């Protein structure tokens, strides 16, 4: 008889005041824990038109000094109705002393980013130190991400992109609210 493994005994935590106790190195990013929903706008000089999107973002932890990160976006039409699935990515934010962040982020478009940066005072600034691409992925040379969160559950996100022969410049801006 097949004997399935028991349920995972260490579920992720999504709130700083719930089990498991967050690792002390997570202190500068505790305000990110949870699930966020919001909308954003995007542009890039190679695209025919700007676009509007919605997004769900989740940060969780298992008591060790890293965050699990997952983001899923979908495009919206002019009436804000869902148009089609868009970018998604997931990864790990490894927290270091003094709020230093080492992030690994992968996308189904064949891009894997290693980003490094700093978390302090409710904002996190990450810049790629390396980008790896699968053989058919588009050329992405660098990204810069800025996350800013407030105590009342608001998160802003700005994303700059150096890709497909274009210099580093604005690709996305979004405003999200914590929903869980
Ligand atoms: C919320 C997240 C994002 C959304 C909603 C989004 C949306 C879009 C859209 C709508 C396009 C036009 C092509 C298409 O319709 O699929 C596009 C192109 C592109 N995006 Fe994003 N994107 C997101 C995140 C990212 C990230 C994280 C990267 C890179 C690390 C990226 C890199 C690119 C590149 C390289 C192109 C192609 C440009 C071209 O070939 O002209 N995007 N994005």
From TrEMBL:
<keyword id="KW-0349">Heme</keyword>
<dbReference type="Pfam" id="PF08768">
    <property type="entry name" value="THAP4_heme-bd"/>
</dbReference>
<comment type="similarity">
    <text>Belongs to the nitrobindin family.</text>
</comment>
<protein>
    <recommendedName>
        <fullName>Peroxynitrite isomerase</fullName>
        <ecNumber>5.99.-.-</ecNumber>
    </recommendedName>
</protein>
<feature type="region of interest" description="Disordered">
    <location>
        <begin position="1"/>
        <end position="23"/>
    </location>
</feature>
<dbReference type="InterPro" id="IPR045165">
    <property type="entry name" value="Nitrobindin"/>
</dbReference>
<dbReference type="InterPro" id="IPR014878">
    <property type="entry name" value="THAP4-like_heme-bd"/>
</dbReference>
<feature type="short sequence motif" description="GXWXGXG">
    <location>
        <begin position="34"/>
        <end position="40"/>
    </location>
</feature>
<keyword id="KW-0413">Isomerase</keyword>
<keyword id="KW-0479">Metal-binding</keyword>
<keyword id="KW-0408">Iron</keyword>
<dbReference type="InterPro" id="IPR022939">
    <property type="entry name" value="Nb(III)_bact/plant"/>
</dbReference>
<feature type="binding site">
    <location>
        <position position="46"/>
    </location>
    <ligand>
        <name>heme b</name>
    </ligand>
</feature>
<feature type="binding site" description="axial binding residue">
    <location>
        <position position="171"/>
    </location>
    <ligand>
        <name>heme b</name>
    </ligand>
</feature>
<feature type="compositionally biased region" description="Basic and acidic residues">
    <location>
        <begin position="1"/>
        <end position="20"/>
    </location>
</feature>
<feature type="domain" description="THAP4-like heme-binding">
    <location>
        <begin position="26"/>
        <end position="178"/>
    </location>
</feature>
<comment type="pathway">
    <text>Nitrogen metabolism.</text>
</comment>
<comment type="function">
    <text>Heme-binding protein able to scavenge peroxynitrite and to protect free L-tyrosine against peroxynitrite-mediated nitration, by acting as a peroxynitrite isomerase that converts peroxynitrite to nitrate. Therefore, this protein likely plays a role in peroxynitrite sensing and in the detoxification of reactive nitrogen and oxygen species (RNS and ROS, respectively). Is able to bind nitric oxide (NO) in vitro, but may act as a sensor of peroxynitrite levels in vivo.</text>
</comment>
<dbReference type="InterPro" id="IPR012674">
    <property type="entry name" value="Calycin"/>
</dbReference>
<feature type="binding site">
    <location>
        <position position="138"/>
    </location>
    <ligand>
        <name>heme b</name>
    </ligand>
</feature>
